[in-house]
Amino acid sequence: MGDLIFSVETLKLLMYAGIIAGVCVLIGTGINFLVYYFLRLYNKRRKSDFVRWFLIHTKNAVHLFTPSLLFLLSLPVLHNYDDYGVLLKAVNALFYISCAWLTIRIVYVFSDTILTKQEITEDDNIGRRKLYTQLQFLRRLIIIIVLIFYVSIILLNFESIRKLGAGILTSAGIAGLIIGFAAQRSLSNLLAGLQIAFSQPIKINDDVFLENEYGKVEEITLTYVIIKLWDMRRLVVPLNYFIERPFQNWTRVSAEIIGSVILQVDYLTPIDPIRNELKRILNESHLWDGKTSTLQVVNSNNKTLELRATMSASNGDNAWDLKCF
Question: How far apart are CA 34 and CA 31, in angstroms?
Fold first, then answer.
């Protein structure tokens, strides 16, 4: 009989909670509609980048945040029921999940607002790519911190999980040492990521040459770098590589670069006609930036002369194509 009364009480609690939740969803949806309606009107008049990105990034997260907040605020009306504490913890967890989601989306709002006018596809844009690289790394780091923070808060709400966590911590022992040694590599990669983000031996869209491969820095994560190679392959390189090993960065200070081609010719070959032909070819090519072009004899052996043709280009891609041409 006691179990039956408990079940009925629980059903009543769930029924009333469901009604309150439905009302909160309706009210929250109405509030969100009005807020976003006025924000869209404001954005049409003022053209605010922050408001525009806020409307784009936060819409779905706010649809969970507002009703869960209203539900949490209205929940005390059910405090007389036996299972109120369990329901409160569940609603708290839902609210913290919505907070985490909204916080992460707001991080995207701020980063995209800063980057809105930072075009990174131009040939020479070192300062802009520096900012893009730093923001990309910081955004991911902040998101990880936010997730750890809110997951910790949610777990602390449940007593059984707190005890389990305490037991794991007190009995860690050798397992903790093993995990610590295993995490050293990841931690060193994270520190390398911080160093790369601010000292910047590489940046997003840099032209690099490493492991006998030429490519462009496509993505920098917390642990590795994606290099987009000339033939559309992706080279995945740990962050530590760029701290511990030498590599070529063709756009470290400027996107301009000089390419060269080596020619082996007979001793009787006239040099001036070749030099004139080089000038003609470069003048007809849109890849040459018009700044540097030379043809020099750089070596000789018992059979041939070695000529080096050099030509400048506005970026690494053009220099590579010009050399091949």
Answer: 5
* Contacts of 243 by beta carbon, 8 Å cutoff, 6+ apart: 192, 195, 196, 201
206, amino acid identity: D
Q: What are phi and psi of 82, to 5 degrees?
A: -60, -40
In the chain, the percentage of residues whose pLDDT exceeds 90 is 23
Residue 238 β-bridge partners: 224
Whether the CB-CB separation of 82 and 6 falls below 8 Å is answered with yes
Classify each residue of 263-281 as buried b or exposed e, where b means 16 or more C-beta atoms within 10 Å of its C-beta. Answer: eeeeeeeeeeeebeebeee
pLDDT tens digit sequence for 190-248: 677 777 777 778 888 888 888 888 888 988 887 788 999 988 899 999 888 888 888 88
- Return the structure tokens found at 303: 């059979």
Bridge partners of 260, per DSSP, are 310
Count each helix (H run) and each strand (E run) in the chain, helices first. 9, 8
Residue 47, Ramachandran bin (φ over 0: left; ψ between -120 and 50: alpha; else beta): left
Q: Give the separation between CA 312 and CA 309, rounded to whole angstroms.
A: 10
End-to-end CA distance of the chain: 90
Q: What are the residues whose beta carbons fall under 8 Å from the beta carbon of 77, sequence distance 6 or more? A: 20
**pLDDT averaged over the chain?**
81
Task: Tell me the pLDDT tens digit for each residue of 131-157.
Answer: 777 787 888 888 888 888 888 888 777
Phi/psi for 312 (5° steps) reads -95, 155
**Cα separation of 56 and 66, whole Å?**
17
AA letter at 27: I
Question: In a 3-state reduction of DSSP, which class is residue 315?
Answer: coil
The residues that bridge with 299 in the sheet, in sequence order, are: 306
Can you tell me the distance from the alpha carbon of 55 to that of 44, in angstroms, rounded to the nearest whole number?
12
Task: Give the amino acid at 230.
Answer: W
Q: What is the DSSP letter of 75?
A: G
Residue 313 phi, psi (nearest 5): -145, 160
Task: Compute CA distances 48 → 52, 124, 204, whole Å.
Answer: 6, 28, 26
